[in-house]
Amino acid sequence: MTYIGHEDAWASWRSASSGERMHHAWILSGRKGVGKSAFALAAARELVAEDGIAQPQGDHPDIFYTSHPPKNDAEAKKRADGKPYELARNIKIEQIRKLQQRLTTRPTLGTRRVVIIDPADDMETPTANALLKSLEEPPQGTFFLLIAHRIGRLLPTIRSRCRVLSFPRISDDDMRAVLAREAPQASNEMRDAAIAAASGSPGAAIDFVELDLGKIHTLMQQIAERGDPDFSLRGQLAAAMGARPKREKQLAAIELARAVVAGHMSGVGRDQIPALVESHAELVRLAAQAPTANFDAGLLIMEIGTLLSNLAAARSAA
């Protein structure tokens, strides 16, 4: 299956893999939800396949996929029992060291193997430095695919040793086609909210539909357009978020607020620009902190509402 927007990435990958010297390390860079993981797994299968050697349909012994582990032993037991479990926030250094031990052996079926780190930008500095040793001296026949949602978070030393494959944002029209196919039950309001928040990521848009952000998007638009002097809209916004929203919903709300601010940037007067820039910068800060910080959900959504209300106040003043 070829995902929307992957055509150039496949062309670059296959051109490189058919050459005499395939680069040993690649960064797959783009927004979360554009299909980088699916690309990595498909590309890895192409790379390890060799004529005359039967390839397994399921897990491949020469493709090592590393991602977030369970949060703790209790969550690991849930995974072992086939139950839903919570993930750790980062890829651990122990995972990289265990992986490196496996790389001391030869590939199982052929002469090549592929290591996928998903996402590589969720490694802390000691973990990234441990991986760097393998990138600097890769075992023969070993290739690395590092998935990065935010390439700027990768160490410069890692980026300098990798070739980058970029995955672009998807157009709104293509996003609507994806949502019509994958989420036919969603209302037009829900789809518009998902497209606005996802910023060109089909996977993120589908996730946002499942998080039911339509009402939240409408309230954010109202606050940004006419303000909220009596805090009533912010109260409705907090109620729409719920008392104990999941972290995923909090992250989605921040991204949605950023989209609302961005949507107000065209056609504004010069006097309004500082307020827009300040609100957007604060939302960027919250987005960077939210994956690891333990924000109070109620205070977070009220802060978002206040940032949006400031836009209306700046417009009125202008």
Describe this protein's structure:
The protein has 2 domains: 7-166, P-loop containing nucleotide triphosphate hydrolases (Rossmann fold, 3-Layer(aba) Sandwich), CATH 3.40.50.300; 211-317. With 318 residues, it is α/β, with parallel strands linked by helices. The chain has a 5-stranded parallel beta sheet, sandwiched between helices. It has 14 helices and 5 strands. Helices cover 53% and strands 8% of the residues.
Compact overview of the structure:
With 318 residues, the protein is of the alpha/beta class. It is built from 14 helices and five strands.
- Structure summary, number of beta strands: 5
- pLDDT < 50 runs, ≥5 residues: none
How many domains? 2
User: Which CATH-level-2 architecture of the largest domain?
Assistant: 3-Layer(aba) Sandwich
What's the average pLDDT? 87
Look at the structure and give the CATH class of the largest domain.
Alpha Beta
Q: State the major sheet.
A: 5 strands, parallel
Structural class: alpha/beta
Order of helices and strands: HEHEHHEHEHEHHHHHHHH
Question: What gyration radius follows from the Cα positions, in whole Å?
Answer: 22 Å
With strands numbered from the N-terminus, the spatial order across the biggest sheet is 2-3-4-1-5
Name given to the CATH homologous superfamily of the largest domain: P-loop containing nucleotide triphosphate hydrolases
Q: Helical region count? A: 14
What is the first-to-last residue Cα distance? 51 Å
The shape is elongated
What is the strand content?
Answer: 5-15%
Helix content: 40-55%
Question: Can you tell me the CATH topology of the largest domain?
Answer: Rossmann fold
